[in-house]
Structure to design on (383 residues):
């Protein structure tokens, strides 16, 4: 039976029913589509497990290098537009997958061709999931993000199983927290939609497996761009700074050309601001407690600002990644120029992906709802 809510379901950060197909980004100096207050409060709520995990990791000088907190970050994006109970379900579904993606990232990073192939395939699948819903696409993007970060650190192969365990554990802390939120705050809301319908998902994904589908074309374009991003930093030996190239592509490239171009500009502005703030903070702060507090706030603003102002979201996630890598022994000031270069290359690749494979049907007027096939009749569904 379908758990999808009717269209009258009140909207959340994107759409509490999980039926939204896309997220429209506001221009620079504009706010929307979400109101800042509720969105940022939700962001701080979702970031609580991240702050707890990082506090434990840094406070006890754990050998996990922030992997648990980062696992909580990955799963925090999934279902963040949902109420607590369905959010816990989505987070539970993604937790073992992001852990496996982190392990796969370490294994494939041992060989540049394997790294390129894995990133291309996972990226293509993540891009294709836009055919069903934005919520499912964010599931795929979170998995691709885990793979990408694990590949980018170029860790030895004996870190594979620890990464699998720590990232999965961190992701599961989000599940526990969402359940606690449901029990103590949201339990009266018993009819929350999950945003998932097995029959409709199968039909939608199956029937969009054609070049006539905007989602299928986006999946190919997106996966190819991510693969090129990984290939560039491996070819030019950019060490552990190179993942900024595919990271930029993952966050800016969408199935809508105009939306992608807007995100390119906002990404550049947000990254520049984030690099300045994070580099100064990394060079001046000498307290683990203060670092954890800033990382917690950065993660909270990542979640809260994603639907409010994309440039500021980019600033927040840049601060998180820079400060976290600084705690691993990387000098933030010396690496700032390489991060800026990686961002610039990623922006260029995303732009060229649309130039080299233009799609005249794409633009702000595209009806993404048309990607869904018409409802099946009971007889057809039974066959």
């Amino acid at each position: 039976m379908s758990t999808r809510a009717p269209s009258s379901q009140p909207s959340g950060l994107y759409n509490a029913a999980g039926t939204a197909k896309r997220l429209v980004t506001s221009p620079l100096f504009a706010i929307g589509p979400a109101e800042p207050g509720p969105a940022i409060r939700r962001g701080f709520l979702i970031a609580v497990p991240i702050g707890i995990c990082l506090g434990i990791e840094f406070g006890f000088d754990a050998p996990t290098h922030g992997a648990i907190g980062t696992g909580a970050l990955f799963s925090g994006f999934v279902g963040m537009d949902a109420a607590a109970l369905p959010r816990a379900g989505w987070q539970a579904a993604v937790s073992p997958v992001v852990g496996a993606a982190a392990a796969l990232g370490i294994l494939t990073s041992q060989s540049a061709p394997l790294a390129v192939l894995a990133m291309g395939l996972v990226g293509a699948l993540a891009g294709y999931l836009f055919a069903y819903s934005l919520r499912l696409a964010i599931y795929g993007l979170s998995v691709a993000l885990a793979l990408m970060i694990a590949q980018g650190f170029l860790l030895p192969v004996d870190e594979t199983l620890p990464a699998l365990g720590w990232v999965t554990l961190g992701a599961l802390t989000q599940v526990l927290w969402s359940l606690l939120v449901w029990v103590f705050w949201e339990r009266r809301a018993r009819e929350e939609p999950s945003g998932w319908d097995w029959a409709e998902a199968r039909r939608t994904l199956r029937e969009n497996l054609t070049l006539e589908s905007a989602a299928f074309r986006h999946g190919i374009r997106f996966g190819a761009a991510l693969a090129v991003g990984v290939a560039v930093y491996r070819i030019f030996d950019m060490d552990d700074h190179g993942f900024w190239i595919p990271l930029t592509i993952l966050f800016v490239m969408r199935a809508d050309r105009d939306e992608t171009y807007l995100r390119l500009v906002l990404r550049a502005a947000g990254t520049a601001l984030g690099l300045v703030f994070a580099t100064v903070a990394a060079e001046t702060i000498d307290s683990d407690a203060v670092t954890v507090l800033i990382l917690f706030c950065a993660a909270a603003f990542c979640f809260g600002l994603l639907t409010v102002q994309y440039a500021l979201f980019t600033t927040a996630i840049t601060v998180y990644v820079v400060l976290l890598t600084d705690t691993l022994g990387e000098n933030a000031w010396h690496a700032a120029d390489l991060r800026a270069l990686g961002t610039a290359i990623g922006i260029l690749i995303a732009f060229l992906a649309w130039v080299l494979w233009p799609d005249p049907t794409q633009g702000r007027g595209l009806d993404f709802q048309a990607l869904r096939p018409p409802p099946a009749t009971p007889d057809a569904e039974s066959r």
